[in-house]
UniProtKB/TrEMBL annotation:
Domain WHIM2: 6-71
Protein name in UniProt: WHIM2 domain-containing protein
One Pfam entry name: WSD
Originating organism: Arabis nemorensis
GO cellular component: nucleus
Subcellular location: Nucleus
Length: 126
């Protein structure tokens, strides 16, 4: 479904008419508040499981939302986990940059390995 749809459709609505959206590239489930147009989001598998457990399947909207979440559960979980891994990797990379040696490298003109190139023989007879 998500491969052929250009404009994404919401996964569904809850009893308060809040819309639930899943964008594959973001790795989150977004919740659009029906009244204030504010947004919230779910970022982990545990939060998704808690959401699915809290839905009342006797209600029409929440049953539909639960079915959609079940249909895409594996894909959603993999994108949530991938996003978590990417964030952890980015943090590790930032820390790796900080952990590097703070020694200052000598400028090129002071490097002893290239100093011989500047040598001038003053004792040379012409």
């Amino acid at each position: 479904m998500e491969k052929i749809v250009i404009r994404p459709n919401p996964l569904g609505k809850d009893r308060d008419y809040n819309r639930y959206w899943w964008f594959r590239s973001n790795g989150r489930i977004f919740v659009e508040d029906s009244d204030s147009k504010e947004w919230g989001y779910y970022t982990s598998k545990e939060e998704l499981d808690a959401l699915m457990g809290s839905l009342n399947r006797k209600g029409e909207r929440e049953l539909s939302l639960h079915i959609q979440l079940e249909n895409f559960y594996d894909r959603i979980c993999s994108t949530l986990q991938k996003r978590t891994k990417d964030i952890a990797h980015n943090i590790e990379m930032e820390e790796a940059v900080v952990r590097r040696s703070t020694r200052v490298r000598a400028p090129l003109h002071e490097n002893p390995a290239s100093a011989f190139m500047r040598y001038v023989n003053k004792w040379k007879e012409d």
